[in-house]
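User: Quick sanity check before I run a bigger batch. Here is a single chain. Can you write out its predicted 3D structure?
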Amino acid sequence: MNRGRNSSSSNDEASDDHQDALLLGLAAELILLHPEAERYGGPKLKIPYHDGSLTGRQWVEELINGHYKRIIENCRISVDNFLLLCDILKYNNYVPQNYQKRVEIEEALAMALVMVSHSARQRVLAERFNRSTETINRNVREVLRGLCMFASQIIRPFDYDQVHPRIANSTKYFPWFKDAVGAIDGTHIPACPPSGHQTAYTNRHGFQSQNLLAVCDFDMRFTYIYAGWEGSAHDARVLDDALSHPSDFPMAPEGKYYLVDAAYKNIPGFLPPYKNAARAGPEKILFNTRHSELRNVIERTFGVLKNRFKFLKGPVPNFYMSTQVNVVIACCVLHNFLRLHQPGDAHFQLAEDGNVGLEHQQGAGELPHVHPLNASRAEVMAWKARRDAIATEMYGASRRRRR
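Assistant: Done. Predicted structure follows.
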């Protein structure tokens, strides 16, 4: 009987020892698989991080070969124009390609388009394209630089000789604004400045931004952009800087002008509205109203740019300022490319004011000589007299039509 009790006790002890060994082994495995285990020599079993069912290249191929709306919703561009832009970046060597690159131009461009279109962070892109964040960062920056190189070809003046149909076909604007060739204004793009520069980049609205100066024509195409100025800089100061040294600023031809707001100087080549027009008479009020309606093209252009590329609506963390500037320039390049090749998309249709057709026009040739934003007193007085004459004649014609 005693023997039987001793034998059972021995079996129980052996069973307990076996269970303890299993628990210790399981605990050891859990410890080694814990993220903190890397400091003790790394986990026993490495689990792949990017193990999605589709590679980035396969996902891009799905977009290209799938329903036409998928690539528009993800990249804001049609299939044909996506492939055309890939060819432009590739064959002009804006984004160098070679047999050793694992990420081809189609996938790299898709990364950049998804980022700027949806304000996607690099970890989100890494998950979508099954790539490391380093690969995402490197390829996106390459595409941004390539688009900035493309800017000189697509952000430029078009035909200055013809009166735009929006003006020529309107009794409100013609012949009063027949010499207007575009509009100028600035807009603020949220920025994440380097440490120690936050004050300079804080604008009058209280948030940190870069001030983008832009010139556009009446087809909502950018003809000049100047990005990178601190948000605290005044629009007129940015324009003055753009003209104070040799640059590619497209000065209006002799006798023609840009429509600007009241923050800019009233000198030849730049036509602002009247200040305090309510006290000056009905003719100046009418001039300001129609001037504002026509100059609104720059506001609508900025609206299309920011609505299409959500990246421009929020701060851009973890990017150098140079890259943040490149993002703005690249988005303007994409805007012009789509305006030329995809003019009927939803974003442009929402911003259209009237049924004005677009034409793929040739360049305007050599740019006029750029001069600083100043003029002699005689030139300024003559320019003001011209504005007064436009206002008076416009008001007189308006009264005659009412009779």
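The radius of gyration is 31 Å.

User: Great, the batch can go ahead then.
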